[in-house]
Design goal:
Keywords: Isomerase. The protein has two domains: 6-182 and 377-388, Roll (Diaminopimelate Epimerase, Chain A, domain 1), CATH 3.10.310.10; 196-349, Diaminopimelate Epimerase, Chain A, domain 1 (Roll), CATH 3.10.310.10. 16% of the residues lie in helices and 37% in strands. It is built from six helices and 21 strands. It has helices spanning 38-48, 105-117, 233-236, 240-257, 315-325, 331-335, and strands at residues 6-16, 19-25, 70-76, 84-91, 98-99, 130-138, 143-152, 155-156, 174-179, 196-200, 204-213, 215-221, 274-279, 284-285, 291-292, 299-305, 308-309, 343-348, 351-362, 365-375, 377-388.
Length: 391
């Protein structure tokens, strides 16, 4: 019996924020995978090592968590006044699907660096020393993101002293601006309300802020869901019954937001919406053992990604937190103490994060103008990935 040999695909393994992923230039993919569809998905699933019934992704590049089971495809931008088109795929670990419905805010921090290093940004836009402003078209959600990439001697500066909770080692700071992060074709609050009531059969009814900024997100009060608001991963991720209950709540929230038409669809749309819970500022020990002091934060936030409590905070969810925090009356704003806020610092399982946002009320509709946060990124490995030839 003969088998096809493995093929090599040029790729770069990068950390962006608190996530890792495999980055590809679009024209480096096999021809059949340069268009969306089943072949592209099959190739990327094999690269990451999914579906894996053992949930380890041992035979691929994935790290067996939602933060490390990611793929990125980049190309020169087809949009005016943009440098690079960015497409993100969230790869399921134990199921054979890739969710293309949303962005990854953490990996966004690595997009600009990759684009510069791989010739996707025009030379005249890259200073010899200073900050390169990379204009990114986020193709999943149709939004503009601006990344500020430090440059030294004409090359991306990756090392530095910027520390990001959830990442062990310091690196260079990358400032990321999410412009008009809400859905321009719909109300940022799908129901038109800052707070709604979500009815979940056999579980209960809950106050919820449903917002579409950065990524569709459902915010609940921690106490309403039976949480303290300071939980770490081990308190939640080992409880299958609890995770199933949270997924049921998320599915009903997705239905109420209009993201799906039947509850069954939630099974293949695990990336969005996110589900999060908030509480007022509290003292706790982060997962690293670092003491988080109540007076250093405005509120506590915990969020689930792909069915598990996230070890830190998803970048796109941080955009949602920043935006909701800037709007008086949302559950996020209430937890932070209310009032007008353009910047908040929240506590998450790995530490703290400061985020900023600008939002305006026009008539009866809230509009998000911008959300800003700092991240870091660096190349971990570059060269080629190998997979069995499946084309």
């Amino acid at each position: 019996m003969s088998f096809k040999p493995q093929i090599k695909i040029p790729a770069t393994y990068m950390r962006g924020g608190t996530s890792k992923g495999v980055f590809f230039k679009l024209d480096d993919l096999p021809q059949a995978a340069q268009e969306p569809g089943e072949i592209r998905d099959q190739i990327l699933l094999r690269v990451i090592g999914s579906p894996d019934p053992y949930a380890k992704q041992t035979d691929g590049m994935g790290g067996a968590t939602s933060s490390t089971s990611k793929t990125v495809i980049l190309s020169k931008s087809s949009k005016p006044d943009h440098d690079v088109d960015y497409l993100f795929g969230q790869v399921a670990i134990d199921k054979p699907f890739i969710d293309w419905s949303g962005n990854c805010g953490n990996l966004t921090a690595a997009v600009g660096a990759f684009a510069i290093s791989n010739g996707l940004v025009s030379d005249e836009r890259i200073p010899q020393n200073g900050i390169a402003v990379v204009r990114i078209w986020q193709a999943n959600i149709g939004k503009t993101i601006v990344a500020h990439i430090p440059i030294t001697n004409g090359e991306v500066q990756e090392t530095g002293d910027f520390e990001l909770d959830g990442v062990t080692f310091p690196a260079a700071e990358v400032v990321v601006e999410f412009l008009d992060p809400a859905d321009a074709n719909a109300d940022m609050f799908p129901s038109g309300n800052l707070v709604d009531t979500l009815e979940v059969p056999d579980i209960g009814h809950f106050d919820v802020t449903m917002i579409n900024a950065g990524i569709p997100t459902l915010f609940f009060r921690a106490q309403d869901l039976g949480f303290e608001g300071t939980e770490l991963q081990e308190a939640i991720n080992g409880d299958a019954e609890l995770l199933a209950r949270m997924e049921t709540i998320r599915a009903h929230g997705a239905l109420k937001m209009g993201l799906i038409s039947t509850l069954e669809e939630a099974k293949v749309r695990q990336h969005t919406p996110k589900i999060a819970f908030v509480s007022g500022p509290q003292q706790y020990l982060a997962s690293s053992g670092k003491a988080i002091n109540e007076q250093d934060i405005d509120l506590c936030v915990r969020a689930l990604s792909m069915g598990k409590l996230h070890h830190a905070m998803m970048g796109t969810a941080a955009v949602a937190i920043a935006t909701a925090g800037a709007i008086p009356g949302t559950l996020v704003n209430q937890a932070a103490g209310g009032g007008n806020r353009t910047q908040i610092t929240f506590g998450h399982p790995s530490g703290t994060l400061k985020v900023g946002a600008e939002a305006q009320l026009q008539g009866e509709r809230w509009l998000a103008k911008k959300a800003i946060m700092s991240r870091s990124a660096r190349v971990l490995m570059e060269g080629s990935v190998r997979i069995p030839d499946i084309v």
